[in-house]
Amino acid sequence: MSLSTRCVVDWVAGVGVALAILSGISLSALGALPPVGDPAAGSASAPVFPPVSSGRASDLRHLLIQDCGSCHGLTLAGGLGPALQPGNLEHKPVEFLAYTILNGRPGTAMPPWSAFLMESEGLWLARELKGLNP
User: What is the pLDDT along the chain (134 residues), one digit of tens a residue?
Assistant: First the structure.
């Protein structure tokens, strides 16, 4: 192996270790946040959330492709995470998907997004994944 190849290999390995450490730290900090909107808890009346503006909807679509797509594939056909296309989600309730988006999946690479998204935005994303948004 040439010196330049060895330098690249060492650099990639070092970056991988740094990312693993940083993601573990940030995910553990986010894991300390309380769960948002547990669908298993149930409630007497369903909460009403403010609608998502068209500008925010555009931002959320971008987040869906760029951020979610980094693990679930840019076409959401699957990757590190499972496929998130409507056909793959037809038996998953919107509330379950929103809960997963907001609270993550402990023990997996799926982080909680509740520090960045309101509950109404998590529901909007879940409806978008199922093809239910106008």
Answer: 665 666 655 665 565 555 555 455 444 444 444 555 555 555 545 555 668 999 999 999 999 999 999 999 999 999 999 999 999 999 999 999 999 999 999 999 999 999 999 999 999 999 999 999 98
Instruction: Name all domains of the chain by residue range, CATH numbers in brackets.
Output: 33-129 (1.10.760.10)
Give ∠ CA 30-31-32 in degrees, rounded to 5: 90
CA–CA separation, 6 vs 115, rounded Å?
39
d(C-alpha 92, C-alpha 85), whole Å: 11
